[in-house]
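Structure tokens please, single chain.
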Amino acid sequence: MSLRAEVALRMGSLEVNAQIVARKGQVVGLLGPNAAGKTTLLRALAGLTSLQRGRVVLDEKVIEDTATAVHVPTEQRPLGMVFQDYLLFPHLSVIENVAFGLRCRGASRADARRRASEWLERVGLAGKERMRPRALSGGQAQRVALARALVTEPKLLLLDEPLAALDAGARAELRRELHRHLSCYEGVCVLVTHDPIEAMTLADQLVVLEAGHVSQAGTPAEVSAHPRSRYVADLVGLNLFRGVALGGGVIELPGGQRLVAAADEPCCGQVFAMIHPHAVALYRTRPDGSPRNVWPGSAEPIDVTGDRVRVRIDGPVSLVGEITPAALTDLNLGAGGQVWAAVKATEIQVYPA
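Here you go.
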């Protein structure tokens, strides 16, 4: 079981040009900002949006190839799809919704209902078979949609923001349940999400789509360790700068500011410089001592994440620092105002752009 897709198409002003390669049992997390083309790419894999150029091969079978005019209709593709807004049939009961795909594929009514009932039990909805979608909670409706997609045993599972419409509690619970089901799923899954937690916990590999093009791809660990765009850096909570390495650890940024990194090895040309927020030290007055990177700025709105506080510093070099609640109180940063940010050269990671 595998998926190899090369997709090129235009939707209005958006040009999508992307590739996805995945093996049996893998979950591909498709990430990107709004209007990046994620759902368009998903619809192209489903056959709901036609390619201008490209080829889609699923389980060694060509289901679309513009060069040879092959186009397998959506209803004949071995796939299941879960939409953000569920799209359950309101006039059908829960069990009839789940059995619908099986009936369309020729299963008898009795067999379809039996298999649908088994899947409803798997997703924790035993006893809800006769209910109509309007009587379900958001989490229950999404479980029905997931059961409907998986009951046909598809070779390709397409999930379009499946947890986005749920509240935080329901989302966390269903994320754990989805992880359990996907760990047993033998096909290929493509998951569209904006949530970095979903991406990092559910996906085996990530594909980042920006303005219709793949800006980065790799395992969650690879993408987190070496982000290649500001969007990815923000997604994983890091400070990322692109500049020109002048040698000796000096990096010149587009605005003329400079960073100084540890110069263990000569490095010149276009580079990325990454700084973890916890490496940013904040002061109310200009610090003395050894830091080679010191910039003035003003403290912007604060985000509390667990036992850490993230502070955005707006200045010649804008970045995010991460401090303890105690440091927040000592510095009186809740009131904002002028601050100084300092970063040691050894805390700046540099890699080629």
